Amino acid sequence: MPFRSILTAALQSAGLMIAGFLIPLLGQVTLLIAPVPLILIMVREGKLPGMLAVGLATAFIAVLARGQAVFVVIFLSFGFMAMGLADGLRWRWKPEKAIMIGGLLTIVALIVVMAPFLSQAERGPLAITEDYLRTSIADAQKLYTQLGLIDVAQTMAQVTDTVVYYLVRLLPGIILTTTLLQAACCYGLARSLILRKDPAAAILAEPTLATWHAPDSWVWGLIATLVLVALPDVTIRFIGLNLALIFLLVYSVQGLSLVEFTLRKAKVGTIWRSMILTFIVALPLIVPVIALGVVDIFADFRKVRTPVQTP
Questions:
Q1: pLDDT tens readout for residues 214-269
Q2: Distance (Å, rounded) from C-alpha 189 to C-alpha 206?
């Protein structure tokens, strides 16, 4: 049993998660990639050492978070994500399949844990979630105030009840989209690290981000979603908005893949490419990039789709 690798992966993953909750802004990046050390050990050493690393890291989290269940639950969900993505790499699934399974495993784990508490509560799940969100915001304000981050605390104080109302009703789409984004980032980073250390590793080496595109048939899902958003019924409209968040993520990635393709063609270095993509995601520039991703369905700017065979 590779005990040293297990301990290293557990410490790295737990450290990234703790940093994610303590460090503003930059911490969100460390939280995003917290499952990566677990993916690496599962691919290189096997599932059993990987799950032992998950268990050990969860114990670290429980001690450092003073037994707060929410942190333990979140980290355990990261372990399920790592398991799905590691299997996807080892079995050479298509990236969208591996990312979808890794993300959905996380959601299922959270639902299984939260369902008993929600079913026993006297109030509805929306009201419970609104109260929990308000309490979490208040607790975060106190934490950032104690850390001397007054600006961050004041920003969180500006979250009104109206914002909480819409946020809760869009929460399913936000959670799923965020989880799939995290899965995509972890998949790409883990794959790059594995191939850099061992170019002959038995994992899926293609496609790179520069050549990836969503299956063309997914555009019908986007069209159906836009129809739901346009309907007058409030409930159906919220369903459409939640689904729209998922398609925005898909075509954001497709648009970013076009930018990556262009930058690679211009021989821009890896570090500069990463910085440019990060700025695009962080700034309003992501809006035209999403539109570019949708247009690429029909234009095929990179000529990466398989041509239709004629008899």
A1: 888 888 998 999 899 999 998 999 999 999 999 988 898 898 889 889 988 898 88
A2: 14
SS3 category, 303: coil
Residue 262 CA to residue 132 CA, distance in Å, equals 44
Helix-strand-coil split of the chain, %, nearest 5: 80, 0, 20
Rounded to 10 degrees, what is the CA torsion of 129, 110, 246, 127? -10
Q: Which residue has the tokens 């600006």?
A: 151
Q: How far is CA 91 from the centre of its chain?
A: 21
Condensed to tens digits (0 to 9), the pLDDT of residues 69-109 reads: 666 777 778 889 999 999 999 888 888 899 999 999 988 88
Domain assignment of residue 281, given as a range: 209-311
Residue 285 token pair: 């520039």
Q: Judge if 148 and 221 occupy the same domain.
A: no
The residue among 181, 205, 229 that closes a domain is 205
